[in-house]
UniProtKB/TrEMBL annotation:
Highest taxon above the source species: Bacteria
Name of the protein: Pimeloyl-ACP methyl ester carboxylesterase
Native species: Arcicella rosea
Record's keyword annotation contains Hydrolase: yes
Any one GO molecular function term: hydrolase activity
Residue intervals of the AB hydrolase-1 domain: 15-244
UniProt-listed InterPro entries: AB_hydrolase_1 (IPR000073), AB_hydrolase_fold (IPR029058)
Record key words, sorted: Hydrolase
Amino acid sequence: MKLFFRKTGESGSDIIILHGIFGSSDNWLTIGKVLGEHYTVYMLDQRNHGQSPRSDVFNYEVMAADLKEFIDENAIENPILVGHSMGGKVVMQFAMNYPDAFAKMVVVDIAPKFYPVHHSMILQGLAAVDLKNLKSRTEANEILKRFEESEGVRQFLLKNLWRNPEKNNEFDWRINVPVIAKNIDVVGHELENEHSVSKPVLFIRGVSSHYIQPEDERKIWELFPNYELETIEGAGHWVQADKPQEFIEVLSRFVKA
């Protein structure tokens, strides 16, 4: 699958960034521009997200294969992979499937463990927006308030709302809501591998996030024995948005090491 991507920078190591569920490459533009001063940065839209193609097949195996296809098509050698949340699981799956196709990996606020479904209310909210008759983003925000109390999360979701010229300029989602809803349990699946991956891996977590717990380090170590774990103060699950400067400093140290 040919993924849509944005690119910044023309020098240094190649860095490929994958967003999380309901996200897109847009979410990483600010970080990407800063990193692009020293590196060549590719920010991808994963399948069923952003401007990349849609598909009824949505799981970590195919998303890892999408990433491999992107790397091969663009003749990128030994990239540094960065993935947040769902994107973190994609890069971990990639590392297990193609252990010689990358140099280092950064996994942001996710572990390879099983996570129970916890996006049900958001999916209900997205489905409740009557796109055909929607008049404005403000109206969509009011509808989402019944399902998601956080203004920040709602604005993050509303970044996916656009006027589709192929549908008479009606509002549309840039995420494939029906397919994501159907496969939302897959997003929480535990990752398994017969062999450990020896390449360097940095896990970054937010201090107030619950996604990586102390007991998860055993599973991380089994799959990625050459790992480090950094905790960023004052950050939650969206570490890179909560503390961008600190995030860039931690990531840059790892890339240079």
